[in-house]
Amino acid sequence: MTSPVVLRPEIAALPAYRQGRQAAPGGFKLSSNENPYEPLPGVLEAIGAQTAINRYPDATAAALRERLGARYGLEADQVLVGAGSVSLLQQFMVAAAGHGDEIVYPWRSFEAYPLQVAITGATSVQVPNRSDHSIDLVGLAAAVTERTRVVVVCTPNNPTGTVIDEAAFLRFMDAVPATMLVLLDEAYAEFTDRAEAVDGVPLLERFPNLVVLRTFSKAYGLAGLRIGYALGDAELLAAAQTAGIPLSVTAVAEAAAIASLDAEPELLTRVAEITARRDRLQRGLVEQGWPVPRSSSNFLWLPAGAATTDLAEALMDAGFVVRAFPPEGLRISVGEAESVDSLLRATASLVHLLPTGARTAG
Fold first, then answer.
1. Where are the domains of the chain?
2. Angle, to 10 degrees, between the axis of helix 337-348 and the axis of helix 264-288?
């Protein structure tokens, strides 16, 4: 389509972000990394109590910021709430980079990163993942130049599910300029069950150029309300807030987030169920011969190469909507309990589509 007005060419050339397709009746949507559980009753009650929707919300989400600050041992001005962590990522990029600058990030990683960088006018610098599908921190540090303003690191990485260990991340932070912004995207942190995995929050005092981003969309099941948060230096957060759209976090979303924190023990029980389901699914896939890397998130990565599109279509025919990233692989979210055995039956009949050399010994 041709626009009736002149647009920035880099924006006009960009494909729009693709949302996961909806599943047919009786099928399973395993394409968007959503939490398969509905919000707990207390969360729904908090949402229902928000009747003053004729009024604007608190633009600072002060109550939630106070709550999160107390949770992490930070001041409230070291917490920024936004319309999902992806929105906050955009705000920080806009605040730090523009035309002539560079933003470095791993690839493959979150598919929104290239779009977000293009919106700032900066240049994308993509650093390929390692052969085991993990992020190459040494490569990321080596890609930094005098033009680099931001480096984004995603752990667990979307879509590969791999994590960064703390020792490697500390070496990375020591290797990059202290004046360059590092965005640690931890949208799936609650699903991580590996002791060596980095937790960015305790590192904030040591590295003032580090910002940690998290969300209520995944583990807390509030994807439809769009609410996430960033933790870091107060001045950095203030700059990002300036770059954001005012009043983008609704009172309903803030109330639901606070109620979710109140219900955290029950919600984390659900997270444990999801991770157990993930591990069972992964074992089954590996036994079938799929070369699935170990995941520390609520999804699995199937490196399928040239077979990616055919596999996605075959799974769609079997009732499973997955996310295809041709020609690299498929991302499969961990869904309802009843989806696991059904999915394994489907994948068992499809593993033959992989080239022999791409299969595991299973």
1. 9-38+265-350, 51-262
2. 10
